[in-house]
Amino acid sequence: KTIYLKDYQVPEYLIDETSLTFELYEDHSLVHAQLVMRRNPEAGPGLPLLVLNGQNMELLSLRLDDRDLTAADYLLSPSELTVQPDSASFTLDSTVRIHPETNTALEGLYKSGTMFCTQCEAEGFRKITYYLDRPDVMSSFTTTVSADKQRYPVLLSNGNPIASGDGDNGRHWATWQDPFKKPAYLFALVAGDLWCVEDTFTTMSAREVALRIYVEPENIDKCQHAMDSLKKSMRWDEEVYGREYDLDIFMIVAVNDFNMGAMENKGLNIFNSSAVLAKAETATDAAHQRIEGILAHEYFHNWSGNRVTCRDWFQLSLKEGFTVFRDAEFSADMNSRTVKRIEDVAYLRTHQFAEDAGPMAHPVRPDSYMEISNFYTLTVYEKGAEVLRMIHTLLGAEAFRKGSDLYFERHDGQAVTCDDFIKAMEDASGVDLTQFKRWYSQAGTPRLDVREAYDAAAQTYTLTFKQSCPATPGQPEKQPFVIPVELGLLNAQGVELPLRLQGEAEALGTSRVLSLTEAEQSFTFVDIAEQPLPSLLRGFSAPVKLSFPYSRDQLMFLMQHDSDGFNRWEAGQQLAVQILQELIAQHQAGKALELDQRLIAALRTVLENDQLDQAMVAEMLSLPGEAYLAEISEVADVEAIHAAREFARKQIAAELFEPLWARYQENRAISRERAYVAEAAEFARRALQNIALSYLMESGKDEVLAACLEQFEQTDNMTERLHAMAVLVNSPFEAEKAASLAKFAEHFKDNPLVMDQWFSVQAGSPLPGGLARVQQLMQHPAFNLKNPNKVRALIGAFANQNLINFHAADGSGYRFLADQVIALDGFNPQIAARQLAPLTRWRKYDATRQALIQGELKRILASGELSADVYEVVSKSLN
Ligand code: ARG
Ligand code: ZN
């Protein structure tokens, strides 16, 4: 069944107060709900039927005001409970029995290990009790939890604790009250044997907030980084957005079994343990940075999501796009701004662009869905954040802040739409965003083709921009977007020219934003004394595919001289793409591969520049990934892509051995002396050290192998150890590989998050025999198909990061993935549907592979009763 945005109607009834009592037992749980309700005055006159959502539960009793209802008084279906109210205000009491202990979908109330926890976004609350489970129904909540005291000493819910006590039979209870009205998707409950790390934060109005991170006892030593990140986030949101925390306590709980990264439940965030736990010995630099970003993301939702929430799920990007933009800016401020931008753009172009080009393509605000869980996508999150970034670029920081202040003030306590957000931005800035809003309604990645014309006599330079956007499902034609293009012009000395457009009295700086609004549009700069070189789309100012006919020499020039750090990196990437595409063509033509030496020269300059931030050096040394090369291909030839990229890597390693070795040794020496610190300068240093080691190992030299083994053994941190092991895993040194894998697994066998990394490294190895290795690893005692992190670490890593093995010509990779999806769908539909993503991209491959993938999709469709999640993705992919 498909739900449409255009069918939205306000709720017939509202819930003002919700009182819940949970009795948790080992073989079932009871939920008593008292809902104080009334007819929604905005919905019109009369008393229509009250239709409550509810699934997978047994109704034990129902009472309307003072009247016990019997089966004759209500209508029960597998997903709804219908009652006829007899007055405009009433109280509905229900008791249901549910089974969290057998809830493998990890949605609603479920058990992760020995603890009880919840995940209600988007529609999980309806598996807990009968309710109006939609985000525009906002209620206050009072929640009492009762459970065995010994097994579950800690009982948590949203808001502030107001009472607690002991009960009979070794049980105890606690009551929590959340004074802020919220939709049911922000409800949370936790019961378990948990320890916590405590701290406090003093807000800008000098209120003291208690901060607690709850974890299983063995993880109590891995919370400090998350706590530090939380405090930084709280301060940043005050300083940059003027947003203060509102309750007396803020809690985070880490759980091992979680479908996503984390969840922003009011005052009680629940996190995948992978998004909280970190210490030097067990978590990499990348994990530390990811944790900092997710902590910030969930914390920022307290305003962008909770205080102001979504009217309906089509508006999801209202909170997600905005909050991703906020967390990205936070990370940029905490670390290197340019490096953060590079990482985000590389990720967007590889994965979101692929989604936008595939059968599941949808606008940032979708028009329809079958299963909302399938729309927690790269488009809603990442492209949504790009849309916010463009607004920020077009309005400027100051007007943007005025707009966000107005938005929060105007809509505090409301459930609103993306239009309301835009309206606040317009009202605060005076900028008309009517055409800009097409970014919310049109899917697909726009192309932007740029031509130049220099007129030496008139001393003018004209750039002509032509935009277009490919058709996407349901949207054959597109209207022009508003595209902010930040640019600069460089002369032959690399000096940036003052930018004065025809008709302007004076130049406006050397870098400025042009706002494109038409399908084709020209801009003429005056007083240009010589043919300049343009630096276009600085900072990736819009999520488009830009093309300009740069020569390789021009790209090398920009790599050296562009004042925009992002575009220096981008020039290097474009140079590498051109050269790799040439190698791909040589491979396809059966010719000997020959690398354009300009790539070597460019990378040598980068390596020898000791003024450059080491993180930038590391980024510039990274060749575009195979998945990105596939995305930009007309037809992705995975074998040619892999061969070309490996060939280039080997050549770089051979030609640049000396400077790479110098950079490696210098940094490894520092790593050996210093204790691990999780901060930007050290992330940068280790990033360069590690990428240098990957190249060096291509040489096969003994001294490099010795260095790699030394780094693997003699380190205090996971960043060095894991990378050394990964490099060994991808090397031909079989004995050393086996020994290091065994040693690592023995040492970390009791740490599931570290074992996830051990699985991922092997699943991602491009060496022949990948599928067999993955199948064997599925038998490993640390593997468990029921745990989403394990599925992502092994099956996900294989299908997404091991293109050469996954796309094996015999279709074995596809068959394997389809088998796993069918198995997963039997108990966790959300995870099953997510693992399908690589199979939805079938149009990218050759005819044989297309047929093989389609065959597997059809096999899934015919495999029996499918969840709505998997059905939607498979059926749309085959369409
Ligand atoms: N709101 C959460 C976050 O982004 C994600 C929840 C996703 N839930 C889901 N069922 N897909 O922070
Ligand atoms: Zn979010």
From TrEMBL:
NCBIfam families for this protein: pepN_proteo (TIGR02414)
Sequence ranges assigned to domain Peptidase M1 alanyl aminopeptidase Ig-like fold in this UniProt record: 444-547
UniProt cofactor(s): Zn(2+)
Gene name as annotated: pepN
Name this protein carries in UniProt: Aminopeptidase N
Catalytic activity of the protein: Release of an N-terminal amino acid, Xaa-|-Yaa- from a peptide, amide or arylamide. Xaa is preferably Ala, but may be most amino acids including Pro (slow action). When a terminal hydrophobic residue is followed by a prolyl residue, the two may be released as an intact Xaa-Pro dipeptide
Enzyme class: hydrolase
InterPro entries linked to this entry: Aminopeptidase_N-like_N (IPR045357), Aminopeptidase_N-like_N_sf (IPR042097), PepN_Ig-like_sf (IPR038438), Peptidase_M1 (IPR001930), Peptidase_M1_dom (IPR014782), Peptidase_M1_pepN (IPR012779), Peptidase_M1_pepN_C (IPR024601), Peptidase_M1_pepN_C_sf (IPR037144)
Organism: Serpens gallinarum
A Pfam family: Peptidase_M1_N
GO molecular function: alanyl aminopeptidase activity
